[in-house]
What we know:
Chains A, B, C, D: This is TetR family transcriptional regulator. The first copy, chain A, has 219 residues and is an all-alpha fold.
Amino acid sequence: MSDELNLQEILQETENDTLKLTPKQTKILEAAIEIFSEKGYNATSTSEIAKRAGVAEGTIFRHYKTKKELLFSIVTPMITKVALPVFANKFVKEVFSPDYDRYDQLLRTLVYERYQFVKKNLPFLKIMLQEMAFHPELKEKLQQQFSQHVYPSFKEKVEHYQKEGQIRDYPVESVIRFVMTSIIGMIVTRLLILPDAEWDDEAEIERTIDFIMYGIHQS
Amino acid sequence: MSDELNLQEILQETENDTLKLTPKQTKILEAAIEIFSEKGYNATSTSEIAKRAGVAEGTIFRHYKTKKELLFSIVTPMITKVALPVFANKFVKEVFSPDYDRYDQLLRTLVYERYQFVKKNLPFLKIMLQEMAFHPELKEKLQQQFSQHVYPSFKEKVEHYQKEGQIRDYPVESVIRFVMTSIIGMIVTRLLILPDAEWDDEAEIERTIDFIMYGIHQS
Amino acid sequence: MSDELNLQEILQETENDTLKLTPKQTKILEAAIEIFSEKGYNATSTSEIAKRAGVAEGTIFRHYKTKKELLFSIVTPMITKVALPVFANKFVKEVFSPDYDRYDQLLRTLVYERYQFVKKNLPFLKIMLQEMAFHPELKEKLQQQFSQHVYPSFKEKVEHYQKEGQIRDYPVESVIRFVMTSIIGMIVTRLLILPDAEWDDEAEIERTIDFIMYGIHQS
Amino acid sequence: MSDELNLQEILQETENDTLKLTPKQTKILEAAIEIFSEKGYNATSTSEIAKRAGVAEGTIFRHYKTKKELLFSIVTPMITKVALPVFANKFVKEVFSPDYDRYDQLLRTLVYERYQFVKKNLPFLKIMLQEMAFHPELKEKLQQQFSQHVYPSFKEKVEHYQKEGQIRDYPVESVIRFVMTSIIGMIVTRLLILPDAEWDDEAEIERTIDFIMYGIHQS
DNA sequence: AATGAATGAGGCTTCATTCAT
DNA sequence: AATGAATGAAGCCTCATTCAT
């Protein structure tokens, strides 16, 4: 698993940060992510991380003052990535293009993209999910990311389609919730609740989009 | 908070169990539920539980052989309650009555009932959610409860309405997922993600039902 | 095992003591002897004793103020019994009779009698042996018993036979040591070191007496 | 006492083992041996060992995973040493030489050597003796050592002298038992039962050898 | 930068003993 | 006499963190 993760890419706070990770540091992070996501932060000992990383116990504390700092060095950058302004960054220009006059295309892209992202970064996200419950800082940071980078462009689009009469006249917040809830619900079911079930990912995604579309679409 | 919880009622496995909790035991359970849900199982020390419960630390271990047994004595009964077969038990006779020929009534009752349940038992459920990630036994028990008590009657109803042409022709599993995902999504948003936001519960529930209805309804 | 032990008989300090043991007390003693001898005094918990005795934890402390008092109530009477003045009490009159002019008869009786005693009371003796190492009171009491009741009559007999030229002219203490050491060595080998070996008890006892006889006998 | 013990020498399993003991580890072992032998394994707390060793309690567990492992690291090597094949190693060549045609020389060396050994390692041996009663592994290991390294060469010599008509025609096992029992009996009396008595070690050893000789010697 | 021995606070658990019933 | 819930001190052990090398 660890070789699939491109830590260099994922763990940098912003894209400008030049993050130099020594090999040992990379090993430590890989090990920490693995074990944190298997057993939880509190049930993981630094000595176990050191062992799995193949470094001495003290080495961890050379790079991270405390165990908590190690956790945050994993989770914090991920928060930014999770809330990665899908719309804003990648689609903002295309979305109002003639090709996107039907928003199911937008939705489809969104779903596929997020699904791949979650699949690739599941251990990170498990840790984040668990620890956000006990570290309000994390929760706040994510919410702030959301309201700054996701919500505005999401809202803009919803209102756009509402004006065009394509989306039902719910409050924008509700629409966003319906959409996200359905997508996240599918992903969670797929990857956490029933990871061993046989799934036709494509079909299931299509059905989910269908469901959302009918649910919010102005008939 | 603790006085709202009726432990006697909640913590008994089946309704026939005569569960005698001594006062001290009740105090211990209340304290444990509070702190587990605040900080998580692993971050909670038995000495802290004892202190908050106002008992000696040894007293905990008179009633629960290990800390884990204490956790399970809290979570296990809740699993049964969570999967409480709303349909089967309460509505099975009414649901096919003429009054329920429109299934939004069914849905409405389901949502209201589950919402109240979660609201009342939030600390329990937080603990359950967190710990299921690290105790496969718990996850398995919940899944088994679900497939035995929830899924069958849910499926029956969905198929009933599909035959009548009222529900779109998705796989039953997908329909169930859409419905549950939307309900759970609303509840989670309301109680965990934005507990401090101003919500019009009634209106939000109605909208959520609307969304589900349009989403799965055969137009 | 417990039914073979006649606690009433064994556990009374002196023969005049009228020792009334309630049924519960007897159960407690039986259980304590069993477990002490299996696991040692320190590794035995009072709750385990209570459980095996079928009484409540508190009941033990109704009869014995402390766990140590329970131990001593088992070991102390046994000390008297162990040092039971074999010679003095039973044989003093016979030993100088014409039948005993050869002291091997004396020895033979001594060995048989002590062997049976040890065999019957092995658990007691194991406890005594173990705990004497850590409770000087016990060791002192045994030594005092020995020098008061065993040593004098033993000495008398040894000197008697030395005067008659039948026992070699070693210091009496040495003769006693040779004799006891050989007997105890045989018993310990038989019952503790090789309890599962096939032994011809009779033959082995005879050989041991032979060995002692040749060893101390004035040829 | 502790400075008399050469732990490095004693605690190594075989002479090839390069046993590196850090100073702290040595302190821990010295303290453990002292207190174990004074109060017994179960009555000794790790915190007391730490205190007497002048280290933190945690340090003990850096070197020995459990308290039991600490015990075994003390007792196990001693088992080998106890069964040290005196005959085989040191005398095997000389014993059949003309000088040894009288086996009392052999016996004398054996007794002296073992006596010195016990005297020097008394704390170790006390611990071993006590704990063998509750740890069958230890007992089995000692018995195995005995039957592999002591018994064969002992037997060989006994049979040699029996063939020469110098040792009485008892079963070899009995002869060995008589000899060992008498030696051990003397040592135990001297060092454990009457450590404060005035003894003429030389004379007592000579007398014991005498006793054994007469006891087993074919007159 | 890296190591790993050492620390000591704190965790879970056991246990002898007490006491109200 | 008997019970057994309750106690709290103490036991073994783990762990994040420090520091000399």
